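Rotation project, supervised by the postdoc (A.L.). Task for the rotation student: set up a whole-complex structure prediction and record inputs and outputs verbatim in this book. Inputs entered:
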Amino acid sequence: MNGLWPIYKRELFAFFVTPLAWVLIVVFLVVQGMHFFLLVDHFALQRDVASDESPLSAFFGNTVLFYVVLFVLVPPMTMRLFAEERRSGTIESLMTAPVSSAGVVLAKYAAVLTTYAVMWLPTVLYLVILGRTGELDRHQAASAYLGVLLVGAGYLALGLCASALTRSQFLAMIWTALVLLILFTLGIGEFVTRDGTLMHDICAHVSVWGHMNDFASGIVDSRRLVFYGTMVLLPLFVATRAVDAWRWG
Amino acid sequence: MSTGGGVAVGVAVGVAVVVAVVVAVVVAVAVVVVVAVVVAVVVVVAVVVVVAVGVRPHPMSATHTNPAMRKAAISRAPTRAAVQSLALISVSHLTKRYGAHLVVNDVSFEVAKGDVLGFLGPNGAGKTTTLRILAGFLGPTSGKVAIAGHDVVTSSLEARRSIGYMPESVPLYPEMRVVEYLRFRAELKRVPRSRRRSHVDDAMGKAGVLEVAHKRIGHLSKGYRQRVGLADAIVAKPPIVVLDEPTAGLDPNQIRETRALVRDLGRDHTVVLSTHILSEVEACATRVLLIHQGRLVAEGPTEHIRSMRGSSAVQIVVRGEPEAAERVVAGVAGIGDVSLVQISGDATRLRARFAKDVGVGERSDATERCVAALVAAGIGVREVHADGGSLEDVFASLTRDGTDDGARP
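Outputs recorded:
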C-alpha cells in the first residue's frame, strides 16, 4: 500500500481544483433538490398514505431520478482516474516512484469514493427538514445512506476498472455507463419475468431497484452486503492486475 | 472355556500394550538420539567453519609482516569490494520484445558510482525502452537488471527508491503549482516529513525553479517544465538520476544551461542520460554507450567515442575560378575526390573527401595542406569546416567495421 496517502490527497486536490467536480456537484444537488421537492409535494397532497411509504423511502430509490443521476454522474467521475494519466504520460512518473499497484488503485478509489460521499452530504439537510416537520426514523435514514454508499461504491469501482482498462477517457465513460445500464436493465427484469423462474431469481439478486428499496425501508440484508462487497473487490482486483500488466505490455 | 478365552484375550491385549509401549519408547529414544547426533554434527561443523574462517589470515590484518605480501593482500581486497559496491546499475543480457518486434536485444553494461553515462543512439534505437526498464516502468522480457543491488523485478520498490527518473516528455500535472507538485513527489518518494521542505527547496534551487515556485505548471514554458522535471528527479536525493533526452525541445541557451546542470548533478549523483546528439554526450558524459537497433554497438570513455568522430570530408568556400580551385585541392596529398557543392556569385563551395587510407589523426594535416595549396595558388579561402562526423557517420563506421563481435573497444 505504498504511496496511498499522498496519491489520495493529490487525487482529491485534482478533482476539486478543476471545474468538473463543481459542475457535477451542482448538477447533482439541483436535481436532488427538485427530486425532494416533488416528492414532498406529492406526499403532502395525498389524503391517505400507505404505511410503508414515506418521502424518505421514496427519495432513496423509489423513483427513477435516483438512478438516472447516478448513471449520469458516476462515469464522468471515474473516467479520468487512470485514462487521463495514461494519455498525458504522468502515469510514467507516478509508477516509477516507489508505489505499489494496489496502493495506487486504492488511493484513487478512496479519493473518488470520498468525493461521492461529499456530494451526498448536503442531502442530509433534507432529512433535517423532514425531521422538523414530521416524523423521521433515524435507523431507516442510516440504512438508506448505507445503501447509497454501497451502490455508489460498487458503481465507482466498476468505473475505476473501466478507466484502468482503456487509454481513452471517453471510452472509459461509455463503458462504465454501458455496464451500469446493463446491470440496471437486468435488475428491472425482476418485474418482467415470472416469479419462481431462475431468470427471475437472478434478476432479483442484481436488481439495484430492489436493493435500494430494501435499504430505504430500513432492511439491511447480508446478501446485499455480500453483493456490493463483490462489486467493489472484483473490479478493484482487476484494475490492480491491469496496472501491473502495463509493465509487461 | 469362555473365561479361558477371556484370559487369553486379556493376556494378548496386555502383551500387545507392553510391546507397543516398548516400541514407542525405543522409537522415541532413537529419535532423540538421531536429533542429538544431528545437532552435535551441525554444531561441530559450525565450530570448525568458524575456527577455520577465524584462523584464515584476514587480508587487512596485521599478521603480514612482509610488506610485499601485505600490499598484495590490500590490493586484492578493494578490487573484490569494488565489483560489489561500485556497480550501481548492472544490466545483463537485457532483452525487451513487443510481440515479434525486438526493441532491446541482449544488452549488458554496468554503471559505476560517480559516472555520468551518456546513452547515445538514433531515434528508435531502444534508449527510452532501456531507461524505462531501469526506472521500473517497464519489465524486461528477459535478462537481469539490478539498481543499487536491488533487482527491478523482484524488489521493484527498493530499486525505484534508488532512482530519480525524468521521462522523455516530462509529464507533469498542469493543475498543480510547482512547489505543491514537488512536495507531493517528495512525499510519494518517502522523504520523511521533517526533511521534506528542505529537500524541496534544495531541488528547486539546484534546478533553478525558485522564481516560479508558486506558478501553476500548466502556465510554465517548456524550459521551466523541463527544470521542474529535473527538480522532481533529484528531490529525494537518490543515488542514481536517470534523464531521458533532457535537452529535447529546448532552445540553444536552455540546452547549454541544462548541460551545465547535468554536469553539476554528476558531482552528487550517478547520472544516466540519453540523447541522439553526439556533442551532448561529449559535453556532459564521462562514459558512453552506443546503442543501435536495440544492440549495444560500442562502449567506453567519452574520449574513445570522440576519436571515432573523425570527419570524412572538409568543406571549403573559395573565391576565384571554381575549376582551378577544384584542381588544386584534388592535387593535395590525402584528399580523395573533390566535388563542387554550390556556386553563388564569386564564392564556390567545395567538398573534399579524405582518401580512404588517411587516418583520423592525419586528416587535420590534410586540411591544412589544402588551405596552404589554395593560398599558394592565389585562390582566396573564405571558410573551412568539417563535413560529416555526425552520429550517423560514427554508427556507419561502427556497424560496417565490426558487425560480428559487436566492436566493443
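Student's summary: Confidence is low (pLDDT under 50) at residues 48-85, 401-409 of chain B.
Supervisor addendum: Chain B has 13 helices and 14 strands.
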